[in-house]
Amino acid sequence: MIDTFQSDADALFASVVALRRTLHRHPELSGEEHETARRVAERLRELGVGAVQTGVNGTGVVATLEGERPGPTVLLRADMDALPIQEETGLEFASEVDGVMHACGHDVHTASLLGTAAILARHRDQLHGRVRFCFQPHEERLPGGAQGMIESGVLAGVDAVFGQHIKPDLPAGTLGVRAGAAMASSDEVYVTVTGEGGHAAEPHELAADATYVGSQIVGALQSVISRHCPPDVPSILTIGRLIADGATNVIPETARLEGTFRAMDEAWRGRGHDLIRRVAIRTAEAHGATADVEIHTGYPALYNHKDEAHLVADAAREYVGPDRALDVDRWFAGEDFAYFLQERPGAFCQLGVGSAHGLHTAGLNVDEEALRASTGFMAYVAWRYGREHAA
Known about the structure:
The protein has nine helices and 16 strands. It is α/β, with parallel strands linked by helices.
C-alpha cells in the first residue's frame, strides 16, 4: 500500500496545500475555532467518511471511517487552534487576523489529517477496522482540549492513538519518533516576593529589598535541578521574567518571578514542585522577606508506548526511507496529546518542516513539501496498525 498512498498523497498535494494556506490566513485562538471547525466538518462530509460530529468539547470535530475488513479502531488526532502572535513572515497567505498566527503549525496538522482522511476514504475496502479522525480545539492554552475530548467519549472503542507535530529544525518531510519519555510536562511557576519599599539610597533602612531577594531566589532555584534532580532524569527550570517595578531611586515593595518547570518523570515532577516552594520561601525568609509561590500544573509528560513507537519507526523507514526516518531526542515542549497516551497505547511523532524560525515565533514558515510526506504516512500508519491487529 505504500506506493498507493504515496501516489494518492502526490495527487492530493495541491489541494492539501491550498487548504493549509486557507487555514493559515484565518487563524483562530483556543476555544474560538468556529470557522476552522466548519471547514473541517464540511470537508469530512464531502469525503463521506461517516457521520460527522461537531461541537465536541466546544468546537471539536470527530468522524469515524469504517473499513470493509474486520479490525481495531485507530484514532488520529490534529489540533486546530492558533497563537496570539503577530505574523511577520511576509507570505502572500499570511494571517489576515491581527495579532493571531498559526505559529505552532496546527494549520499543517489539520490540513494533513484531512488529506489522510481523503486517502483512507479512497481505500476503505483495504482498511482493517476503522479510523476515527479527531480534530481537537484548545491545545495552546491550559487546561487544554484533550481532556475535554476524552470526557466527551472520543476514545470509546479506540484501541490505539497516533498524532504528529511539526518540528522546524528537522529537514522537510523527515519523520521522527522516540519510544518512552518523548516530551516534557509543562508547569508554570510564579513567585511573588514581598519586602519593604523605600528610597534607593537607603537600603539599610529597609527590612528587605524585594528586588535583591528576587534575584537571590533566581539563583537559588538552580539548585533544584543541579543538586536534587536525579542525573538520569532530564528536567529544566527556567525563570523567564523578573519584574520589580521600582525606579533608579526607588526600591519596590514587591518583585515577581515567572518561569517554567519541565520534567520527563512524573514522580520527580511532584518532588520538584515541593522543592521550588521550599527554596523560594526559605530564601526569602533568610533575607527578611516573604515569598508566595504558585505553580500552575500544565500538561503531563508525554510517553510513547514501546510497541506503537516501534511500529511508527518501522513505518517511517518504509515510507520515507531509512535516511529520512529519524531516531529523535527528547523534546522539552509540552503537548496535551499526552492525555490520550495515558488512556490508550499509541505514539506521537515529529514531522520535519525545515524552518529557520522556531515554534511560537512570528517568523515560522514551514516547507510545505512536508505535507506530501505527512498525509500519506499517517494513512499508512493507521492502515498498517489495522492490518497487524486485525481480528
